[in-house]
């Protein structure tokens, strides 16, 4: 084989390997979400329209980021189908606050979202400054229970 042809083959091979490495590196770190990707649970491919992984059942969980009150700075994931908030042990989230009822509020995971409901508390629940008995939560909603405030983050 002549030298110029050998040189073209070597350069072409190096460029091909570089493109392959770039494509693999670019694909890493993409989780499941609106654009699809790999399931963080089993690392299998997920379709963008799947609310949960069809292989292992993994599902993205919402979070409450506390910005005011005894849990300020803490982030709590809503992993259960129903998360209860109150002032006594036995609730999923316990707030040591005299303005919080024993069983104050509940957050229920539903198909396509989360619903916050007052469970008959004395002081009620507030979402974005409005007292409501029940609310389908939206990203960024500010929830106030007693003297605590948290921000709802769906994923």
Question: Would you kindly provide a written description of the structure presented here, covering whatever features stand out?
Answer:
This protein has one helix at residues 3-27; strands at 37-38, 45-46, 62-68, 75-78, 82-86, 93-94, 105-110, 113-118, 125-127, 130-132, 134-136, 142-145, 148-153. The strands form three sheets. The protein has a six-stranded antiparallel β-sheet, with no helix packed on it. Strands 6-5-7-8-11 form a five-stranded mixed β-sheet, with no helix packed on it. Strands 1-2 form a two-stranded antiparallel sheet. With 155 residues, the protein is α+β, with helices and mostly antiparallel strands. The longest helix is centred in the first third of the chain and has 25 residues, at 3-27.
Overview in brief:
This protein has 155 residues and is of the alpha+beta class. The protein is built from 1 helix and 13 strands, in the order αβββββββββββββ.
Portion of residues in helices? 10-25%
The share of residues in extended strands comes to 25-35%
Low-pLDDT sequence parts? 29-35
Q: Largest beta sheet, briefly?
A: 6 strands, antiparallel
Oligomer state equals single chain
Which value, in Å, is the CA radius of gyration? 24 Å
SS field, number of helical segments? 1
E-strand count = 13
Mean pLDDT: 87
Shape: elongated
The structural class is: alpha+beta
**Major beta sheet, strand line-up:** 4-3-13-12-9-10
Element string (H = helix, E = strand): HEEEEEEEEEEEEE
Name some characteristics of this structure.
single chain; 1 helix; 13 strands; 155 residues; alpha+beta; elongated
